[in-house]
């Protein structure tokens, strides 16, 4: 269930907690912003260890590679080692810090497996500075009147419960960092319900609530928690929802307009934001900006 590949030395960070991290962040108006103008550099994430779930997906791979190019040390997590091999090779071939790969099936794992993963990581790392949830699953779209209970429960479990529990086991490592960031990738149907999206939309809406709950509970530890809708991407997940759709208008997950908002929220530049809803808007320059 769990396979760790040795990569780099343990990164230690002085265990200090600044309680000046204002809880006022939680009371700001929750507008949807897009950090369009953020331009990361090779040292933007230097000294940060970041775990990415769904690392082998198109979005996960793009975010992971961009984070590595910005100086992050990566923990790549997905259900099969072979799925991560090409990403591992791409990172290493660029002369970037060698990542650690973690073979872990979030869907099939039991609570004891999650506990073992948490214990293993805590034995090797003092802290992590970022957790990015890129693991998302498709599900049949249908009217509520035709929804099967087993399908509903399976979708809620995959889209909501599993990311919650992964976050839960990593809280000790996130707490040990001076500043840390948790990002839940989400879908716009979690912010505005639409017909036929049923369990997928309900789970996405619950993730929005989960993010706010965690942000409130963890603010005293300087842990920021936000959601990010990456927009309409050219991915296998999108094809599950829209199998007959032309992809001409869809954006590559590797586009800076998609990955830069993730890097922004992981970086020190994003330290002031928590309990927020963000949206990447590839090609849309009329979107709201982050205040200077």
Largest beta sheet: strand ordering: 1-5-4-3-6-7-8-9-2
Find the CATH superfamily.
NAD(P)-binding Rossmann-like Domain
| Largest sheet composition | 9 strands, mixed
* Number of structural units classed as domains: 1
Number of strands: 9
Percent range for β-strand residues: 5-15%
Unreliably modeled segments:
6-34, 284-292
Average predicted local confidence, pLDDT: 86
Order of helices and strands: EEEHEHEHEHEHEHHE
The CATH class assignment is Alpha Beta
Percent helix: 25-40%
**Helix segment tally:** 7
Cα radius of gyration in angstroms: 18 Å
Structural class: alpha/beta
Word description of this protein:
This protein is of the alpha/beta class and 292 residues long. It has one domain (3-279): 3-Layer(aba) Sandwich (Rossmann fold), CATH 3.40.50. It has seven helices and nine strands, in the order E-E-E-H-E-H-E-H-E-H-E-H-E-H-H-E. The chain has helices spanning 58-69, 81-93, 111-124, 149-175, 198-218, 236-241, 256-266, and strands at residues 3-4, 32-33, 49-53, 73-78, 100-103, 130-133, 180-185, 223-229, 277-279. Strands 1-5-4-3-6-7-8-9-2 form a nine-stranded mixed β-sheet, sandwiched between helices. The longest helix is centred in the middle third of the chain and has 27 residues, at 149-175. The model is unreliable at 6-34 and 284-292 (pLDDT under 50).
Which terms summarize this structure?
292 residues; alpha/beta; Rossmann fold; globular; disordered C terminus
């Amino acid at each position: 269930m769990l396979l760790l590949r040795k990569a780099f030395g343990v990164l230690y960070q002085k265990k200090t907690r600044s309680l000046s991290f204002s809880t006022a962040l939680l009371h700001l108006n929750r507008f949807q912003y897009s950090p369009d103008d953020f331009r990361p550099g090779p040292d933007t994430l230097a000294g940060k260890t970041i775990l990415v779930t769904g690392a082998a997906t198109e979005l996960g791979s793009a975010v992971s590679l961009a984070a590595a190019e910005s100086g992050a040390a990566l923990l790549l997590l997905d259900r099969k080692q072979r799925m991560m091999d090409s990403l591992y090779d791409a990172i290493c071939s660029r002369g970037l810090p060698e990542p650690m790969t973690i073979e872990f099936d979030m869907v099939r794992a039991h609570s004891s497996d999650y506990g073992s993963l948490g214990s293993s990581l805590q034995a090797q790392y003092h802290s992590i500075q970022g957790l990015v949830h890129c693991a998302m699953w498709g599900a049949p779209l249908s009217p509520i009147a035709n929804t099967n209970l087993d399908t509903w429960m399976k979708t809620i479990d995959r889209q909501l419960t599993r990311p919650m529990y992964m976050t839960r086991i990593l809280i000790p490592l996130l707490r040990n960092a001076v500043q840390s960031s948790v990002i839940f990738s989400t879908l716009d149907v979690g912010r505005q319900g639409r017909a036929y999206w049923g369990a997928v939309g309900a789970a996405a809406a619950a993730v929005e609530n989960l993010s706010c709950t965690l942000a409130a509970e963890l603010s005293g530890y300087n842990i920021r928690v936000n959601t990010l809708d990456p927009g309409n991407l050219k991915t296998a997940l999108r094809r599950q929802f829209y199998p007959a759709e032309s992809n001409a208008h869809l954006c590559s997950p590797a586009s800076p307009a998609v990955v830069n908002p993730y890097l922004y929220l992981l970086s020190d530049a994003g330290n002031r934001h928590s309990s927020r809803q963000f949206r990447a808007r590839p090609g849309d320059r009329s979107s709201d900006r982050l205040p200077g």
